[in-house]
Amino acid sequence: MDRATDFIHNYSSQIQPYLPYVVVPLGIYSVYKVLCRLIPGPHHQQRLVLRDKTVLITGASSGLGRALAFEFYKKGAKLILTARSLDKLEALCDELEQAGKSYGWKNPHKPVFRYLDLADLNGASASQLDDLRQQSIDGRTIDVLVNNAGQSVRGSCIDTPISVHKQLMDVNYFGHVAVTKNLIDAIPDDGAIVVIGSMQGKIAVPYRSAYNASKHALQAYFDSLRSEDRPNLQILTVSAGYINTGMGARALGPDGRPMGTEDPNQKAGMSPDHVAQSIVEGLSDRKTELILAPFVHKLAILMRIFTPNLLYWMMYRRGRNDPHRKME
């Protein structure tokens, strides 16, 4: 008995100095979980089941939009796909149906496609967007709106003309605002809006000023929207790092024309399929923020808060080696 008591006493004295390292994190985590329970919001809603739901995706003809189309179709959703390239959209719809037959997805809903140019939502946009609503399962409800379409740019703050800045804002910001404003009444309280932002919407990098600014604006708009009349509506903002979508080659240069060459960082980025899977999982789990990026990129967000000058210097050093700096 004395041996057992001595063993327990010795063991306790050995682990006691380490207890705070265990108890404190567990206490913080427990408080966090309690707060999550107490704070109202979409995270209290039931898991989003996508079967027999209508999903509208902008910029669906290529890249991440295309990958998302496959993920949603696999889940049994009715897809409304939009982009500027009708040929690519038509081919995508055929591929989706063929994949459904090949893999036994058993999706009874035929995907449909429509032309939509976010940079040119003029006076005809109301009827154009109303037509999109009518393509839904019940002719009036869009369960999930995916604001995905986007455009990038390469060039310095000074040399990028205002016309290019405006073009980026039209596509990456004003277009999504217009679509959301026109369709939000069609989205039920248990539906969702997915916003495909970027890590560059949180951390600005050199020689991407127009793109950075448009993504910062997009983040701010939807942060405001979720704070207004419908706080229980799920708005999932996705801040993604580099994705290997070929977007770098389509990025505009300072002259407003596509670069035509792929960005090495983009080429080494995450696969669109992986990102699409993560987004659909986060959506179904009722998340409101999703950061898909390496740890060092996430660390930059904290640096922006706690050591901004160090982050700015690091970005300056990065910019000195940026290949687009040599174009000036």
TrEMBL record:
InterPro entries: NAD(P)-bd_dom_sf, Sc_DH/Rdtase_CS, SDR_fam. Residues 252-273 are annotated as: Disordered. Pfam families: adh_short. GO terms for cellular component: membrane. One of its GO terms (molecular function) is oxidoreductase activity. The keyword Oxidoreductase applies. The keyword Ribonucleoprotein does not apply. Putative oxidoreductase. Belongs to the short-chain dehydrogenases/reductases (SDR) family. This is Uncharacterized protein. Keywords: Oxidoreductase.
